[in-house]
């Protein structure tokens, strides 16, 4: 997509100073400006960049008065930051709207129900009795199993896989490589040392407004459902095991994982590479620091860190002591000697 | 799939009490019962749920005598738990049997050999001289490289990728996004700071009865094979590097990883997010706690934990001390003061 | 592919001793030799294996004199190790050359530009204005978004997904399940506890000679680019967040991850499962030990380990002390008692 300076000015109710016909197809920071892109200048601290930027167009406040020659084209608007934000919304919307209709070939079971104004990319497979809501976009190579429901206005990027019977709410975004509803990890040990598979007959449910990062896995419930509640945001390469529950508006960063049946409350924030044991209850508004290992349930509002995870402040104190352990140990060895000589002096004195 | 109460009763040799025609299409716990699902009541502790459950059908023991009115339909059977287990087996079998035949389009090389009664989903690609055994199911968008052998009665879910020359045994289950046989991570450092790729010409072999979780990766051998032995079960997002060996009936939980050439014995159990260095030998029946980092070889039957991993009991003791380090340090500082005043007293005394 | 002993001898300018017509289709170590494979003997320490190996052909130095009967076929060459290495190069080249042309069906937008001598596997989708360079191989089920550029001589294995606007340099290798350019993890917290998505309008750029392991994710920049510099090698299941930069010839092992906007210098080496916080600057030639957690920026040439990561030598010292903490604590308790009795003795003495 390319946009001409005059068209952008028209949309923003702004005024072009420079080349009316220059075109841009992307966005860049003013300090890293590239030809063919648009930048904005709102913060006066960045003003000096405008005199040398390679951006083809820069949005500026109507009040902006250059103090030197400017080679780029300016568009003067009431509020350059707000104007930029609305351009960004338009840009993303326009971009997404270039994907529409049903490409060929696709494999859609005749019993599936497909909403209005959807996009279905080539090589996508949709199973029996599956439902895809209005305006939802399924990129190429998506797999939608039997009896799956995908709500309205969702985006499933290339290669997302949804197992049979799962439910995806409205306005969900699933990135490439996401797997929803794969079997939980359940095996019954047998007397001869082998394991017998425990059938995983539940499903996974994502409520509305959930976003899930690339290559993250949400297993199905062994029985019943694994649930990601409304508004939860999960980053890349995360593992959500069978029968877990991720609470409303909870945010989980990359490569974190939780074992089976752990329930996480609302509005929690987990940093990257956190691990949670199974069958825990994590309260609301809990924050967990990066790489922490959580082996016990956690109450509302706690902030925890470390392995095994403890209160954040205690963990920071402990980290500081651990860092000084070699020094502390030397002092301890010295103290042992001191005490030894005091003891010997005492014995000598008492003779 | 829907099943009518009378049909279920017939299959279980049971008796319907209530609505003969009510249909169910799923399963739920009696305490979370939903309309259109079947539950069972075996444990008397759960009896109170039966009077209010929304499950459409509940299996009960023939000896069950309700103590109040029940609105749901009952099926009385000899042993409700056993009956439920056999229904579950039937359910899973029936479900899997809905996938059969070869969908269209697929890309199967003319030199590939495909067994009887297979399922091959749309957009699956099968390479030169590949072999797929009888009754194996390849879901949509699976990639089977050249010279790959997939045994009988396997399930490869949507989007599994098998590189050239790999071997998958019988009765294996590979979940979506699994990659088998990708290049090992081997590069020879050059004098100019760049790296030269070391060709990875081995393969990966999964023996019979192996199950591998979603988005897990098993690299090929640099030379020779990476091997996952009979009956091993590997969870989601695990990394098995080049030339590793995972022993018979060993179970590895999510997000664990091992570096190249590490050999793991039989019947081991690793919790989640465990890391193992390369070139280690891990004995049989070894257990490793979550997030442990293993830098040395481990003997048979050991139970280890922590980073660097040590004996489990010692690790638990150490964790307890670390948790108390701030207190211990304060006591230490006090002790230093005490010794200092003893020393001063001694010096004063000796004057 | 099968090769006959005489053909191999011809290529290597060697001499067959044994069966001219025996064929091999693979390679094995002499100590693990299998029928139908070729091995080499260069190191005299391994000589005893040649008398019993099941390899069909063994390359040996021209000077090799057997001390017993040999059942396998030998090919005598000037330098068995060099001969083997050149066979390996040939093997890999030949193997890759079996994939050529454009399979069917594929989905290539009419505005895409495809180079000469490419391989495009079945079910691959190439978007608007995308460019694919000469001799590049796109395996089946690859997704190339709109405006993506893939350079020359690249290999994108089955199921690689490249989001719109990303740039892949020349000679890059991307393994199955790799996702390039997925949205960065950015959400603005709202007053009501929900999160508003921050549009991710940047891209991801891989420079030349980059290799990326299976199921690794490189997010796009929120704004601007996420960059993996020339010659960097990234293993499986790694997370590279939005706006990160991985320096030239830097090597990152499996399951490591970094949060947004962290910049990593040249020629660094990270072991497995390392985590880096966001907005850090990691210098050149930095080495980080396995499972380390890095919360602060790191200068050139540092070697660090542990969580939080500290200098490697200090970390090893600290690990040793931690391992001995139970013993140290007991000694401390003893010392407390000793000091207590010294204090009591002093008080008794001073009475």
TrEMBL record, chains A, B, C:
Pathway note: Bacterial outer membrane biogenesis; LPS lipid A biosynthesis
Gene Ontology MF terms in the entry: N-acyltransferase activity; UDP-3-O-[(3R)-3-hydroxyacyl]-glucosamine N-acyltransferase activity
EC number(s) per entry: 2.3.1.191
GO cellular component: membrane
Broad class of enzyme this protein falls into: transferase
Catalytic center residues: 242
InterPro entries: Hexapep, LpxD, Trimer_LpxA-like_sf, UDP_GlcNAc_AcTrfase_non-rep
CDD domains: LbH_LpxD
Pfam families: Hexapep, LpxD
UniProt domain UDP-3-O-[3-hydroxymyristoyl] glucosamine N-acyltransferase non-repeat region: residue ranges: 21-89
UniProt keyword annotations, A-Z: Acyltransferase, Lipid A biosynthesis, Lipid biosynthesis, Lipid metabolism, Repeat, Transferase
Quaternary structure and interacting proteins, as annotated: Homotrimer.
Family the UniProt entry places it in: Belongs to the transferase hexapeptide repeat family. LpxD subfamily.
NCBIfam families the UniProt entry points to: lipid_A_lpxD (TIGR01853), PRK00892.1 (NF002060)
Protein name: UDP-3-O-acylglucosamine N-acyltransferase
